[in-house]
Structure formats: C-alpha cells, structure tokens
Amino acid sequence: MGCCKSTQYGCCIAIDHDESIILNKPTGKEIRYGPGWFCFPNWWDAQVMKSIPLQNNQYIIVKHIIDTDDKNAFHARNDIPLTQRTTTNEKDELLNDSEMHLIEIIRGPQIYKLKNPYDRLSEIKSMINLSATQYISVADKLTGVKRVECGPQLFCPKPYDELGEIKNLYNLSSTEYLIVTDQSTGERATINGKNEKHEID
User: Fold this and answer.
1) Are the beta carbons of 24 and 45 closer than 8 angstroms?
2) What is the pLDDT of residues 3-30, one digit of tens each?
3) Minimal CA–CA distance to 122: which of 66, 60, 65?
4) pTM of the predicted model over 0.85
5) 85-137: per-residue pLDDT in tens?
6) Rounded to 5 degrees, what angle do the CA atoms 198, 194, 175 make?
7) Number of helical H runs and strand E runs in the chain
8) What angle do CA 12, 13, 14 make, to 5 degrees?
9) What DSSP string describes 143-156?
C-alpha cells in the first residue's frame, strides 16, 4: 500500500504483508514489517520496500552495510550479526569489498525480505544455464585468478567475476587430438581423444 495518512502529530502508513518500511530516525535507521499501520513524526523519512520474488534461475547481490556513525552496532532489533549470516547455497562464499562491507549472494527460488535497513541490493540478475556440452571462462577481478565452469549447471557468478563467452566443448574421438598452448607461459600440451569432451580456455 504505502499510502501516507497525515495526522495531527505526523504520518501513518499502511503496508501489506509483502512490504516493509524503513524509518530514518535521528538515532539511525529501523526496519519494520507488514502488514499493519505504522505512525511516525513528520521529520522522519520513510521508505516502503516490497519483498523480492526470485525465480529458480535468478539471484541478487546484497551488500551488508554497518551504520557509518557506529561501526559496532545495528539499529534494527531483528538484525543478525554479519559473521552469522549464511548464504542460500553452500558453495557461495561471504566476500568483503574494499570498504570491508560483507557481500552475500541470495539465490532463488524464494521471496527475499530486507533484513538490515542499511543493506544495499542489486537488481535481479539471471544465472547462466550451461548445457552438458558448454563451458565458460571466468576471471576473478580482485585476484586475477582464472577458472573454467563446465556444464551441465545453472551457474551463478560471484560479484567480482568477469565472464568470457560461452563456448562448446571439444568432442574428441579416440583417433583425434588437440595441441593446446598456454597463453600465460607459452607451454604446449597435447590432449588425446578418448571419446571425452574437453574445454579450451
């Protein structure tokens, strides 16, 4: 809903079950969840947030922010300490950016509700569907480390991943082979076919 009804002492807003309201008070931000009416003074700022429905092939990136005026405190009563937060997939790591903010990947399917009023959310992103004959090269922009992700899988990039093009695996028979050159070292290697599929980065 999010419709403000003025009163003698301030403003009242009605929010639905799939909405929350962030109240920016002089002492810090606070988040409250619907459904219900919430009243606050006119000098407080308020922002109504809808829950985010994520499909099976979608995800968002959440940057958990601590109030810059108080590095050791959270202003919402229902906040979970950042060190105890868990991602929605065991393979997802909790990352820190250059400002030491904790970055978390939230995967679907689920309906995600904002948990910390200082969190920053990305737009909804789509995972990459790799078939059994496809692969993609991935470079970590922070460390420079490169890796290859092979299908079949629904690949969810990490926040600092730089993605190459999706390519097809080489299907070599027992009478075929490939000569592969490592571009970083110049070394060459021969890959013999054994009715297996190989990726070439």
Assistant:
1) yes
2) 555 555 688 899 999 999 999 999 889 9
3) 60
4) no
5) 444 555 566 666 656 568 888 999 999 999 889 899 999 999 999 999 999 99
6) 105
7) 0, 22
8) 130
9) T--EEEEESSEEE-
User: How far is 111 from 140, CA to CA, in rounded Å?
Assistant: 29
Strand partners, 59: 107, 125
Phi, psi of 82, deg, nearest 5: -60, -35
DSSP-derived letter for residue 170 is: E
Q: How far is the C-alpha of 58 from the C-alpha of 61, rounded, in Å? A: 11
CA-CA-CA-CA torsion for 126, 145, 195, 154, nearest 10 degrees?
-20
Q: Cα–Cα distance between 12 and 39 in angstroms, integer?
A: 4
Q: Where are the beta strands (DSSP E) in 156-198?
A: 161-168, 170-172, 177-181, 188-192, 196-198
Question: Closest by alpha carbon to 134, among 119, 156, 149?
Answer: 149
What is the strand order of the sheet 161-168 is part of?
146-150, 134-140, 161-168
SS3 175: coil
- How is 135-146 classified by DSSP, letter by letter? EEEEEETTT--E
CA dist., res. 162 & res. 168, Å (int):
19
Cα gap 17→53, rounded to integer Å:
13
Residues for the chain: how many in total? 201
Structure token pair of residue 13: 């807003």
